[in-house]
Amino acid sequence: MTERELIRSELQELSVEFLRSRDGVKWSRYPEPVLPAWVADMDFQVAPAIRRRLERFVSSSDFGYTWVPAPPELIDVFVERQKNRFGLDLETENVVTTVTALQGVDTAIQLFSEPGDGVVVQTPIYPPFLAAVASTGRQLVENPLAVTDSGYELDLDSLDAVIDERTRILLLCNPHNPTGRSFRRQELEALAERALRHDLTIISDEIHADLTHAPHRHTAFGSLAPEVLERTLTVTSATKAFNLAGLPCSFTAAGSTRLRDAFRSLPDHLLAHPGALDIAATQTAWQEGDTWLEEVLAVLETNRRRLHDRLRAELPQVRSFLPEATYLAWIDCNELHFEDRASKAFYKEGGLALHCGHDFGPPGSGCVRLNFATATSILDEMIDRLISVARAHSG
């Protein structure tokens, strides 16, 4: 059996029984018969190459100290991948490693703004973005996405209206979680023009970049122009695309020495550093995992269309757009008649655990986020349960 055949077999043979045997939070948080589609973990087994690399660590008990900062070859692999896949031209000396991407986000907010300063966020948004602004004592500058007939888009007119003299940072999720939007280059260029005009530092979380669905192409924010790169911090990781959330190894790439020097001014161990297995998994993913990623994207392509087509045909009362990136579907249930939050009804009445839209900011009210990165047979059961509950509340 070839490597590709092995990968396809594992993706097709995924079962609920196997998934319930895991210790991870996704499948252990809720009791049977609840199907979990809430947290942003994929159900798929990781790439065989990653498993082989980690098995070597176990067999040799190689759990000693690792490099601090990260080994140069890891940084080289990261920089090369960003340039070859996304046209983002980075300097190796400007890359800082952390354990999680959110460490990079939180630290950048602390470094490049003061308490009370404004941070622009496009809602609905990944909840830790909102927490990062609140926990650092910054002011949330909300710039909700506009909803059009074709999907969610950046509302640039609204952005001009909400920025004031104390706005310091633009916090961008690109591609966008939870809406699954892959922003077009023209949109991002218009956003960059405003960031330059208002002298904003850009923190661009691009952790879902490798999960962009054809024919769409990911545009790295820092790749737009040299003057944009100079004020951009690109935060990313292999964890989403290669299903390695439990082996976190993340990167904050500064587009200039000015941004880099602010990070380097911190004490060496203020930011936690990834461990040996984290580093090995990430490096192997980027060097040997792309065949696996291609096969996963093929499954996600089937799943995203299956979900979208069934909702459109069987549940026209809800609004949902075909995700252009990520493995997350954003479903607006405001036309249904729920007495409480939609996620509670889907859980209590259908045994389906979804992420509550309320957590993503005010525009998320009445919405749910569904993770479709699972076997197609399991997804079909999730869709059946969702439609059954929704129809009971559509009268």
Protein described:
The protein is α/β, with parallel strands linked by helices and 395 residues long. It is 41% helix and 15% strand. Strands 2-10-9-8-7-3-4 form a seven-stranded mixed β-sheet, with helices on both faces. Strand 3, helix 7 (127-135) and strand 4 form a beta-alpha-beta unit. It is globular, with a radius of gyration of 21 Å. The model has no long low-confidence stretch (mean pLDDT 95).
Itemize the secondary structure elements and their pairings.
Elements: H1 3-12, H2 16-20, H3 25-28, E1 35-36, H4 48-59, H5 72-86, E2 95-98, H6 101-112, E3 118-121, H7 127-135, E4 139-142, E5 146-148, E6 151-153, H8 156-162, E7 167-173, H9 185-197, E8 201-205, H10 226-229, E9 232-237, E10 250-254, H11 257-264, H12 276-288, H13 290-314, E11 319-320, E12 328-332, H14 342-350, E13 352-353, E14 355-356, E15 367-371, H15 376-392
Radius of gyration: 21 Å
The number of helical segments is 15
**Strand/helix succession:** HHHEHHEHEHEEEHEHEHEEHHHEEHEEEH
Low-confidence stretches: none
Q: How many β-strands, per DSSP?
A: 15
What structural class do helix, strand and pairing data support?
Answer: alpha/beta
Global outline: globular
Instruction: Describe the largest sheet.
Output: 7 strands, mixed
Name the strands of the widest sheet in spatial order.
Answer: 2-10-9-8-7-3-4
Helix content: 40-55%
- Determine the strand fraction and express it as a percent band: 5-15%
**Mean pLDDT across residues:** 95
Concise summary:
This protein has 395 residues and is of the alpha/beta class.
